[in-house]
Fold these 3 entries.
Entry 1:
Amino acid sequence: MPTALRRRAALCLPLLNWGCAPTPLAPFAAPAFNPPHQGGRLWRADPTASVLRIVAFRGGAAARLGHHHILQAARFHAQLWLPESGLAGAQGELTVRLDELELDRPDWRAAAGGEFNEKPLDAEAIAATHRNLLRALNADAHPEVSLHLRQLGGATPWWTAEVDLRLNGQIQTYRMPLAVEQGAERLRLQGRLLLRHSDHGLQAFSLLGGLLAVQDAVVLEWDLTLIAARR
């Protein structure tokens, strides 16, 4: 690739994983989390003992000029209410602010290994990518991403969940398995799901006739530790 094109590409790389044009959508009024005061058990997530991660992938014919990205939430809110009688009727929610997502810490990339660890990212590139992420996801208008539990089934250590995910003011329903470790005072939930920009009214960005592009799909992954609440 000519030097001039490489320089132009380098300037645009921070945009690639999140350079999307949001489609205006009506606001979504999320259902209130209001579990019964009697019976059952309430669990609240401990963010310091949990991981909530988004992984985005470079794309296009010149993808190797770009980077994959790892985003994690240092702070988020999550809680789950389980009835005494079983999983039917369970209620739960998880909410994270987009502007509180951290991006591409060197230790995360080193732990991931492979292509995530092949090229370092400097602080300036990370900051530019973070700004472009917030702009692309229309974070000023829709600053939060949230999951709301619709249905829980299965049996420990394998649960099945149906959730509504709200992103960019648009809601989509997903079904997923969960790996579960349940103790007397601690509950661990592990799972992941595949999201697409296009499913939430976002158009993946491309540049130079598609030579550089972002993949439509991203992975949402979590390893949540929840503590039994006292109430």
Entry 2:
Amino acid sequence: MRWIERWAGPMFRAVTRLEELCLATGILGIALLTIANVLVRTTLGTSLLFAEEVSRFLIVFVTFVGIGYATSKGRHIRMTALYDAMPLRARKVLMLLITASTSLLLFALTWLALRYTLGTVRELGAVSPVLQVPRYLVYLSAPFGFFLGGVQYLLAFLKNLSTSEVYLSFEKLDEYDDSPPKGI
């Protein structure tokens, strides 16, 4: 199982770096467009027509890319009442089941979203009102984000397969911080 560490480690870092780059660019773009629109509106009395539309596109993009990034940090919401009460071996088996099934689900959603986007949405020919951008290009954010999430869950599955500990993601160990909150 040494091959998992040698292959999956660089893959995890590359995918996470891509997600960070996409998220940083998207959020920075939203902020800059909002600031520019406010400045133009207060100085010239008119809005940048494209600012709201591009900001919406970026919000959709950031939302879907965030699926994989949250997975890479082990930050998805989890219902753990039963899981926490299980012995380590049972938690390990359950985590393998969770990461494998979630990865498969996200890859299936990737395929379905891609088929819907490149088939139905593209065939409808809908475009955005201001920039006339084909809607299917914006909708491609969904399969892209699902795919990144699927890769992250697959990497978490491989990590759990190759170690005795339980991992929430490729790098995030499933552990609790029992220290009291700061300031108490």
Entry 3:
Amino acid sequence: MTKITKRTVDAAFPRDKEFFVWDQALKGFGFRVYPSGRKVYLTQFRADGRLRRVNIGVHGTVTAEIARTEAMRVLSEVRLGENPASHRDRLKASPTVMAFSKRFLEEHVAVHCKASTYGEYERSIELFINPKLGSLRMTDVRRSDVVGFHQSMKSIPYQANRSLGVLSVMFTTAYTWGDLEEPLNPCWKVKRFKERKRERYLSPAELARLGKVLMEAHSEPEAANCIRLLLLTGCRLGEIQSLKWEYVDCEAGLLRLPDSKTGAKIIPIGAAVFDVLDSIERQAGNPFVITGRVKGQKLTDMQKPWRRLRARAGLDDVRIHDLRHSFASDALQLGQDLPMIGKLLGHTQVQTTARYAHLKTDAISAAANQVSAAIASSLLGNPDQSEGMEQTLD
């Protein structure tokens, strides 16, 4: 044993087998000499009844003085009852983002989320998260990595924000499961991209064009009926695609859905909906209202048929979900209040309904014209118009 300095480390020549040199002043501090000539500083201690070693650094990269200081820190932790080797082992055992994402989907998302949510999470992970961050260990992901990942998707801001949200849930789950020691989520305070909210609704003229196209859609009647039901009920696409005949309560005028995005819910429907349902021929052995090509199954793909139908109607910018927006907006213009519209749409909070139920441009323009005309009449000294405006405001 000798005092470890740069001179003593340089003077240690390699042998056929690796060997250790220990410091005479600081018990547990030493370095290992490999046959290749590589020399590594380390500390040795006993913890949990076992002899453990923790490497500090390679000689040349780390000086003897720095190694001694680090050894003193590690040995102090041991005296306080901690086990630095255990912490190192956990870091080495930390899964990669790709490996953890597989377990995350199987044990968290599949158990706690709906099938549609699982599909969204899986898509974000496989197409965006794993290609960028999959090779990194969960413990090695830093906020700078997350910021870089998010910024790389600036051309698709909606998907960037969704993928960032999925990644954040992954890290929260990893901490809950004990795969991460630090509670700090690297996604925390990463600024999301601004999202422009869509306000697309169908005008009466557009509805008329779409209705004509649906009447002429003889080659794909299932898709046409699906669109009709979406327009007349305000339901989500998945709710109509998964609608079974047993969910239709003709006597009460309701759709009794056992499951939806917000759980089980009841949807009131009007006579026009029953007219569509009555026109649909039931298939023996198929419980679904909107049937698919596979025997006994539902229609699973509505995006391609919808693109064809909307193109014929000249509505290329209309998404399927915009039909739900139109239902809410039409209800508002017909005098229904937000709580009632929320019940029709199956919302649990009025704030959610308010996002859908915007006034259409025509109605806003008409209101603005009425108010400005009344004020203009008052400015010209027309008392009759002024009284009419007061009565309207009252």
